[in-house]
Amino acid sequence: MHLQALNLKHKIQSTRANLLAHPVYTQINDLNGLQNFAKYHVFAVWDFMSLLKSLQINLTSVTLPWLPVGSANTRYLINEIVLGEESDLDEQGNRISHFELYVAAMRQMGANTSFIENLIASLKSCSSIKEVISLSELPDQVKQFLAFTFEIAQNAPLHVKAAVFTFGREDLIPDMFTQILNEIYSAYPDKVSIFKYYIERHIEVDGGHHSHLALEMVSELCGNDPVKWEEATQASIQSLEMRIKLWDAIME
After folding, report:
1. In terms of Cα–Cα distance, which of 40, 43, 15 is closest to 172?
2. Which residues pair with residue 88 across a beta bridge?
3. pLDDT score, position 206
4. Helices 189-204 and 31-59 sit at what angle, rounded to 10 degrees?
5. What radius of gyration do the chain's Cα atoms show?
6. Which pLDDT band, with edges at 50, 70 and 90, does 174 fall under?
7. What is the mean pLDDT of the chain?
8. What are phi and psi of 127, to 5 degrees?
9. Which of 38, 178, 191, 225 has a Cα at 20 to 30 A from 126?
10. Is the pLDDT of residue 171 over 90?
C-alpha cells in the first residue's frame, strides 16, 4: 500500500473507531429498530451512488464526442466499481443496483420508504438538489449529511472526492451489527432476507474488491503531493464525522 495511504488511514483511525462504536447499533435489536435504521440509512446508500457517478463523470469520458480522459488505470478502476454498484445481482440473479436492492429490502421488512421516495420524486421536477434537500421534511442532521455529500460531489477537487468516497464512505459495518441482524433474521426470515443479502453482498463486494480498487484510485490521484494527501485526510475525517451525525439522528 502507498505509504501516504497508510498514513491517512492512521490519521482517520480514531474517528473511524468512534463511528464503529456508535450506540445506534445497540438500538437495532428488533425488527422495529431495523425498520427505523433503514428509513434514514437509505440516504447514505443513495448519495453514495451520486458520489460514485460524480467520480465517473470526472475520471472518464461521458460526453460526446468521446475523448480519452486521465489514465486508463483510473478509468478501469471507477468503471469496475460502477458496474458492481449500479448493476449487481439480487437473490434470484436479476440485475439491480445496490440502492434499488436496499429499497426492496425496506419494503419487505415494512420500513417507511416515503422519505426517500418523496425526495426522488421532487428531483424529477426540480433539478436543484440543494433546494430539494432544503425543502424536504427530513431531520436536520440528515439534511446536513446530504448537503455535505453533494458539496463534495459537485465542487470538491477530484482527489478529495475520491478520498471521501474511499475512506469516508467505505462501508462501516461492525461485527456487532452483523450478529444483531442474524438474530433478527432468525426471528423474521420472511421480513429480513433481502436486507441480510444486501449486507452480506455489500461486505463481500465493497469491503473487499471495491475497497482495494478505490484505494488505488486515491493513491494515483494524490500521487506524491503532500498537500493533496493532507486535503484528502481532512475531508475523510469530516465525512466520517458527518456519518456520526447521521447515526445521532437515527438514535433520536
Report:
1. 15
2. 96
3. 65
4. 30
5. 18
6. confident
7. 91
8. -80, -10
9. 38
10. no
**Orientation angle between helical segments 3-20 and 226-251, nearest 10 degrees:** 10
Query: What is d(CA 196, CA 193) in angstroms, rounded to the nearest whole number?
Result: 5
H helices of the chain, where?
A: 3-20, 24-27, 31-59, 72-86, 98-109, 114-125, 129-135, 140-155, 158-163, 175-187, 189-204, 211-222, 226-251
Task: Reply yes or no on whether the pLDDT at 148 is more than 90.
Answer: yes
> Which three cell numbers mark 62?
461521458
Name 178's bridge partners: none
- Cell of residue 124, nine digits: 424529477
**Residues across the chain:** 252
97-141: per-residue pLDDT in tens? 999 999 999 999 999 999 999 999 999 998 799 999 999 999 999
Task: Answer whether 168's CB lies under 8 Å from 243's CB.
Answer: yes
- Distance (Å, whole) CA 75 – CA 82: 11
Give the position of cell 420524486: 121
- Cell numbers of 24, please? 445506534
pTM of the model as a whole: 0.93
pLDDT of residue 209: 67
Distance CA 202, CA 154 (A): 25
Amino acid 214 reads A
Q: Kindly state the average pLDDT of the residues 17-38.
A: 92
Neighbours of 132 (CB within 10 A): 20
What is residue 29's predicted lDDT score, i.e. its pLDDT?
Answer: 87
pLDDT interval class at 151 (50, 70, 90): very high
The answer to whether 248 and 141 are in contact (CB under 8 A) is yes
